[in-house]
Amino acid sequence: MSISDKEPMNEQMIVNLYSALRTEINQLHAKITELEMEVSEHSLVIGAIQPLDPSRRCYRMIGGVLVERTIKEVLPAVQRNKDGLEEVISRLYEALERKKKEMQEFEVKHKIKIRRSDVESKDEGAPKEGSAQGVLVGPAGGDRQSS
């Protein structure tokens, strides 16, 4: 039995519970994104060190301390960490789906309809400014001077 099953609830309680559900969903999205970035970093490291000689020295950060190891020692640990992160992401996706379902049931039960503001609906079709953040493109012409 969840909090939303208790009756009667006033409008403010419904709004607060709905906001809490939305906050939880947003937090799950943020955590999933963060962990997916970590998996990507682990994949890059694995891809970089896998073809190298297993006896070659490498350095690994463990608890804020840089330690010297061999690739043979580090590669399985990095792979285990990546696998563990993928498992956590999978569980978080399951939790996210449960939370979304709970939110939908809450919306139906309390007849909640989301209204978009006029500004949001006008901007929806237009491309978002800054959608290519982090990309720097130089001039297209031959404006470069040879030295």
UniProtKB/TrEMBL annotation:
Membership in a protein family: Belongs to the prefoldin subunit beta family.
GO process terms (BP): protein folding; response to cold
Biased composition (Basic and acidic residues): 116-127
A molecular function (GO) term: unfolded protein binding
Keyword Chaperone among record annotations: yes
GO cellular component terms listed in the entry, alphabetical order: prefoldin complex
Record protein name field: Prefoldin subunit 2
Keyword Transferase: no
Region (Disordered): 116-147
Coiled coil location: 82-109
Entries under InterPro entries matching the protein: PFD2 (IPR027235), PFD_beta-like (IPR002777), Prefoldin (IPR009053)
Pfam family, one: Prefoldin_2
Keywords assigned by UniProt, alphabetized: Chaperone, Coiled coil
